[in-house]
Amino acid sequence: MVALGCSLPAAAQEAYPNRPVRLVVGFGAGGPTDIPARFIADKLGEAFGHRVVVENKPAAAGMLATRDVLSQPKDGYNLLLCTHFESINTAVYKNIQFKLDDLAPISLISKYYYGIALSNSVPADDLESFIRYAKQHPGEITYATIGAGSAQEILALQLEKLTGIQMNRVPFRTGTQVMPELIAGRVQLYVSPTLAVLPLHQEKQLKVLGISSPERLASAPQIPTLTEKGINFVRYGWLGICAASGTPQPILDMLNRRIGAIVATPEYRTRREDRLHSGLLHAGRAAQRDPADPRRRRLHHSRVRVAAGAVSLRNALSSAPLACLPPPAETR
User: Fold this and answer.
1) Burial 300-327 (b: 16+ CB within 10 A, else e)
2) Alpha helix positions (H), 164-311
3) Which of 114, 168, 203, 294 gets the highest tally of CB atoms within 10 A of its CB?
4) Distance CA 79, CA 68 (A)
């Protein structure tokens, strides 16, 4: 049976796009999700001859943006900067009103690691001294999140569990709102993508105590991995471009080729590294759009507690509890 969304006349599909395209980003302007999105939007606009407009809808760990895109016609004119948050959101929230199968992954555009960023107001210069301080002052350390059930919150809760410390959560709408508060010492800790905090670490505006990568980053060799410090904490996030399921397959295929070509350019890699710094992994392979997409796998339906009843995941990874859920599948 042929899906209705794929039954557009060939002439109509070939005309795509014949007007501006929206790329909706569920996080704030100027952040680690927004900057790659704008670069890709600019390059797609040049290739299309029509603008690709980035629209930021920062709220609810990206869910507002996802709902927006899914509420629009499935014609390729409303795209989503999708992230691993979609996987987490559908596992954490019961009344989320969408499921992963509602999204059609188009292309993976990057992967990135996390850093444990600490305010200079805390008298600790490395992970060991921070853990000692936090244990001596239980409940006094505050950590920032950008949404209940966000990757930042889950990883902070896991850090608590692995180290035996106790912290208090302070919610923010966007990561760009967190940074001034972290620098000023009004919040003490933030588990952040390295691309957002390494420049501030190098400017000595805050301290990055450890990185979730398996090896030290070439651009920040002085910062240890968390594994080196005895914390089994290798985690990464990912960014991709998605559309609503039901978007005509020829449109998805064309977008896949266009975005894959942009991500493969030296300019994309250089621009990311120049503007976002390091900790960003190259990801130029295309996403497979099929039911076996690993984001859609139904893994163990077990409840994995990351902190005394604070958060539970209905779909936990079978191999490594609370590891970041995987990105769209990559072709070989």
Assistant:
1) eeeebebbeeebebbbbbeeeebebbbb
2) 175-184, 194-202, 249-263, 266-276
3) 114
4) 10
pLDDT tens-place string over residues 117-159: 999 999 999 999 999 999 999 999 999 988 666 777 888 888 8
In a domain, 226, yes or no: no
The answer as to whether 267 is a domain residue is: yes
Report residue 113 as tokens.
């690691």
User: Which domain does 295 fall in, by range?
Assistant: 20-112+236-313
Report the CATH number that the domain containing residue 96 is assigned in CATH: 3.40.190.150
Q: How does pLDDT run across 201-224, given as a tens digit for each residue?
A: 999 999 999 999 899 988 889 999
Residue 284 has pLDDT above 90, yes or no: no
Question: Is residue 296 scored above 60 in pLDDT?
Answer: no
For the CA atoms of 147, 152, 153, 155, what is the dihedral angle to 10 degrees?
A: 160
Residue 46 forms part of a structural domain: yes
Residue 186, domain CATH: 3.40.190.10
The number of distinct structural domains making up the chain is 2
Q: Check pLDDT > 60 for residue 309.
A: no
